[in-house]
Amino acid sequence: MIKPATFNFLKDLAKNNNREWFQENKGRHDEARNNVLEFVGELIMELSKIDKTISADLDPKTCVMRIYRDVRFSLNKTPYKTNFGAGISQQGKNFNGPGYYLHIHPEESFVAGGCWMPEAEMLKSIRQEIDYSGNDFRDIVTAPDFKEYFGEPDQEYKLKTMPKGYSADHPDIKYLKLKSFTFTHSMDPKELTRNDAVEAVINGFERLHPFMIFLRNAIS
Is the pTM of this model over 0.90? Predict the structure, then answer.
């Protein structure tokens, strides 16, 4: 589980997002990060039983993202993220394709997964697979268990016009217009502090698994 001390560190960091405070509290960061690494290690072990492409030996250090922000191209110059994030795939967090994601934040934690902003060729392949296998895709994303948990796909990145080669009356146009193929489920951060926190996250990842298989087949 994620310890309350980990969330407390993130809360304090949000109020004191500067290098001087961070250096004074580096020990707290290291303890919080170790807590997250341990938690992600447990997730990997359980996820490997569901998704055979994920090795039980995957090092959680390859999955947990650094807390340092890249401020080079951002108007927000605060140096640190106020969350811990973990991306899980065969390659850990550095995946170009489908992956699972856990966002750990004191106010807005969530589980998610899919292909975030795939490159042009991969995006084309996913759209083609939805076009060719629309019934299979809809069976996955509109299944009652999946729909109740995730709702609609994330809508942050999508075309305002029709994608090239597809008409407005295509039965799956609302999916074909997407530029990211991801689903997200918000979690109460308190869920992550409970003894069954691993099970709660794995519950979301397990529901995502058929969607992940579809995406992998599309780009293979």
Answer: yes
